[in-house]
Structures are given as structure tokens and as C-alpha cells.
Specification:
Largest sheet: 7 strands, mixed
Helix content: 40-55%
Radius of gyration: 21 Å
Distance between the termini: 44 Å
Strand content: 5-15%
Structural class: alpha/beta
Number of strands: 7
């Protein structure tokens, strides 16, 4: 079923190295499966070099790109054990630090991010700003050599398991007086950096947090790279985030579809398996087609990003995220429906994906904001805001 992509024709779309990486990660995922222990899998994936495939070799990474990292996440998801923090730690934070960090920051963080011994969370979303990053109210002001941060963040994944959080704040530009974004590394136990878990209906191994930064004092070197590159740094992490979210959704959709196909092949109510009925078979075939189309777009986006085409990657990454989220929601819905009552049981483990699948439609940016992006950037239509 989902193995059609491993056929001999795949070299046109995917190199032999990628196909081999896919197979190796899929095997690791199958060993862990749906009842996986996050820490054990994270450590093992790190040891095998999968968590840092996109980070520079000189810092212990694989020297590849988001193309390789997204393969890893998709295949783990396809086996039912996606590591959500891969989107955040190596993809967003690892990319930002390797592209913009000081030599000292690279030495301090990249080897650990690459082998999984260090994890970093990412804090951009705020209670009142939503998708409008221009409304970020977390501020950073200089105090002697230090920085002092004040503000709030919400829906920040895995802060409790992360050694530090990359916080997006705004500093005042001395010349113009206007605020500009800057990124700061805030270690987990810094004084004044408080977190409280948000009760979610979502059954995920990673928790979501609200953060309060109350007079958080940081040394000068907590600022990532150059103060003037703030906006560039911020955007450097966003395309990888979208590509990885697409990979996350694709893995989940494939996992659900695989379960449904297995069930439809064996479940008999009358003479033949239910999969023989077109009302069951066709929607599953449709879900498969949509997932495959989204996979192609995700590969395209990763390829453009890794080739350094940020503009092309921006458009493709948004489209890939949109397509993968829609395909995932529909695949999960159809999978649950195929199993009937069993689709809602804990034993089959599909019902919890109904909520989880919605995440890809909402985060890190809603599908409406992607449609805004495409209408303005791709189609040149006027802005409504």
C-alpha cells in the first residue's frame, strides 16, 4: 500500500540515499510502534544520527537538510511513533542557531541538538498575538551587559523536557524607537521563567505550556547572533517548521490509512472482506492519492529550502503544510469510519488521532493564513489586512 513509493521508479523523485534512510527509520519505528516510550525512542534516534541529519557535520550532524529530517519524522509517524519535538529542536532551533548563532552558541548547542542529548523548545505564540507576529509583546531591554525579558507565551510544546527555549522577543531599535524581533536562548531553570501546563483534549506525549517571563535576566550571549538579523532569523526557522509539520501530518495520515486497509482486507461481515465494497475501498484510495500528492509537495518544499531558494520554499512549504494537513484529517476520518465502532476504541488507537490530526490544520499557522499567503504572494491579490 504505502510501499508503492519504494518502487524502482522512486529515484526520479527520491535519491537512493533517501529511500535507504526511509527504510532504516521505518524499521526503527516499527520496533517501537504505537505504544512507544518517547525518551527511549528519542535517545535511540539521536544515537543513530537521525535527529541531527540536517545539522552541520562539524558539529556532529549529518550534513544534510530538511529533506532528510522530514523523511525521518514522516517514517516515524508512519509507524505510529512521531517525535513532535523534531519539528522544534533540530528543525527550527537547530536551523536558526546553525545559520545565525555565534561560534560559541554553535559549539554549546548543536552537538547536543544533533545527538538528542539536548532539546530546545521554541516560543513565539502569544495569547493576544495569535498568527500576527508583529503584535508580539514580549520585550527585551538592555541592562548593562545583560538583557531583561518580560512577557507571556502560550501553546509552547515540550518546555518541561527542553533544556532551553528559544524565545522570540522584541527589542527597541535605538535609532528609530520601533520594536524589532530578536531571538534569545532561555535555559529551563532561569529565574523568573515560569511555565504552567495547558489542559489539552489532545492525547500527545508532549505537553503544551503557557510561559511567563517575569524580569528574566540573561547574559549578553543569550541573544542569538546579531541583533539586526532578527527578522531574517525568525523566518529562517519558519519554512523548516512548515515542512516538518507537513511530514508529521503525512506520517499520521499514512499510519491511520495502513490500519484501515489492514482492517478492510480481513474484516468480513457478509461473504467477502468489507474492502471489496467500493463504498469502503474508494474513499481509502482517495485518501491514499491525497497523501501521495501532499508528499510530493513536501519533497518539493524541502528541496527548495535546502537549495537556498527561500522565496520558492516559502510558497511550497505553505502549500505542503496545507495539503498534508487536509490529507491527514481526511485519512484519519476515513480510517475511523472504516473500523466503525472499533475505530472509537482504545484498543485500535485511531480515535485519539481525530484530535491530533486537527493540530496540523491549526499549527504552526492556520489554513486561513496559508490561503492569505497564497492569495497575496502567489496570485497577487490585494491584502485584506
Amino acid at each position: 500500500m504505502s510501499h508503492s513509493s519504494h518502487s524502482s521508479h522512486s529515484s526520479i523523485i527520491e535519491s537512493e540515499e533517501h529511500t535507504a534512510l526511509r527504510a532504516a527509520v521505518a524499521a526503527l519505528g516499527r520496533r517501537h510502534g504505537r505504544g512507544y516510550d518517547r525518551e527511549t525512542l528519542w535517545r535511540e534516534a539521536g544515537k543513530l544520527g537521525y535527529l541531527g541529519v540536517n545539522l552541520p557535520e562539524e558539529y556532529g550532524g549529518g550534513g544534510g537538510g530538511i529533506a532528510e529530517l522530514s523523511v525521518v519524522l514522516e517514517e516515524l509517524g508512519g509507524a505510529g511513533c512521531p517525535l513532535l519535538m523534531m519539528i522544534v529542536s533540530p528543525a527550527i532551533c537547530g536551523t536558526v542557531i546553525s545559520r545565525f548563532g555565534t561560534d560559541e552558541q554553535k559549539r554549546q548547542w548543536l552537538p547536543g541538538l544533533a545527538d538528542g542529548s539536548l532539546t530546545m523548545a521554541f516560543g513565539i505564540t502569544e495569547p493576544d498575538a495569535g498568527s500576527n507576529s508583529h503584535r508580539i509583546t514580549t520585550t527585551a531591554r538592555r541592562d548593562g551587559d545583560d538583557w531583561v525579558l518580560n512577557g507571556r507565551k502560550v501553546f509552547i510544546s515540550g518546555v518541561d523536557i527542553a533544556d532551553a527555549t528559544l524565545i522570540v522577543g522584541r527589542t527597541e531599535d535605538a535609532r528609530t524607537g520601533s520594536l524589532k524581533p530578536c531571538l534569545f536562548i532561555v535555559p529551563r531553570d532561569t529565574e523568573g521563567f515560569r511555565r504552567s501546563p495547558i489542559e489539552m483534549e489532545l492525547q500527545a506525549v508532549e505537553k503544551q505550556f503557557e510561559l511567563v517571563l517575569d524580569g528574566v535576566r540573561l547574559p549578553a550571549d543569550a541573544l542569538v547572533g546579531d541583533e539586526d538579523a532578527g527578522l531574517l532569523q525568525l523566518f529562517a526557522g519558519l519554512n523548516p517548521e512548515r515542512v516538518m509539520t507537513a511530514a508529521f501530518a503525512l506520517g499520521m495520515g499514512r499510519y491511520a490509512l495502513d490500519r484501515a486497509v489492514e482492517y478492510a482486507k480481513t474484516r468480513q461481515v457478509w461473504q467477502e472482506p468489507i474492502g471489496a465494497h467500493q463504498a469502503i475501498a474508494h474513499p481509502l484510495a482517495q485518501a491514499h492519492i491525497e497523501l501521495e500528492l501532499a508528499r510530493l509537495m513536501t519533497r518539493k518544499a524541502a528541496h527548495l529550502y535546502d537549495a537556498g531558494d527561500d522565496t520558492g520554499a516559502g510558497e511550497a512549504a505553505n502549500m505542503a503544510k496545507y495539503a498534508a494537513a487536509e490529507a491527514c484529517v481526511r485519512a484519519v476520518d476515513q480510517a475511523v469510519h472504516t473500523l466503525g465502532g472499533n475505530g472509537l476504541t482504545r484498543e485500535y488507537g485511531l480515535a485519539s488521532l481525530i484530535t491530533a490530526a486537527r493540530v496540523a490544520r491549526i499549527a504552526p499557522v492556520s489554513r486561513e493564513m496559508i490561503l492569505n499567503y497564497v492569495s497575496h504572494q502567489s496570485l497577487g491579490l490585494p491584502k485584506s489586512y
